[in-house]
Prior knowledge:
By secondary structure, this protein is an alpha/beta fold.
Amino acid sequence: MLPKELIRKIQRIRIRTNRMVSDVFSGEYHSVFKGRGMEFDEVREYQPGDEVRDIDWNVTARFGRPFIKKFVEERELTVMLLVDASGSSWFGTRERFKNELAAEVCAVLAFSAIRNKDKVGLIIFTDRIEKFVPPAKGSRHVLRVIREILYFRPEGSGTDIEGALSFLNRVTRRKSVAFLVSDFQDSGFEKSLLLAGKRHDLISILISDPREQELPPVGLIGLLDAETGETVEIDTSDRKLRERYRERRRREEEQLLKTFRGSDVDCIRLSTGEPYVTALRRFFLQREKRMR
């Protein structure tokens, strides 16, 4: 039995994201994600302007006049959501935690997918595979996906992106559109990212919180690493320490974005302190422009 507060939260996400899908992403999702290819539809008589290379020579020879093969795009896609549920996802200093932002963004993507009659699947991971929901269609299935992201309590606390991508390749035989939603507090996943990017249309969604980028000058504080359990005390009144921290975070993010570019993986950067609709729409528009 789900808690009433969670049910209300799921309903709020459903109402909010359904409106966004209708008003903002109605045609953009369809235009930037292609089906698996072209499939045979029918044979019809040749008409002026048709491609000569599409002529079906066997049928043409049989009837004594030219016929062509007609193909249509095989539209149905499989959309896979890979969601990081490690300890660091349960953090947020603004309106929501990072995992709540992840759930709402996944809801937008999932509702966009089912509106286009695509399947949606879910992989929740930490330092292990925590939950796998096979791809399926329909609003009820999407609501289950959202519920799992919000309500699921993982056993692990660390992050293994390499393991998540390897699992994706094992459970999805065909090319899929895969969204990797994480704060990417992990290392050593570059090779698996490259391999998954070649096999699937892989998009990374980098979620962060403003307090992870810059420390506030509030004096002596204890910082807990939610993934390792380690605690360290630092003096945030030290200006040089804050500058070193900010510079280190900047370099880490710069290296991560370089890794994405090197693997030909698009990246959508989201923050708990900013509206995500603008970033999502920018991604759709940029990708649509690139595909023209």
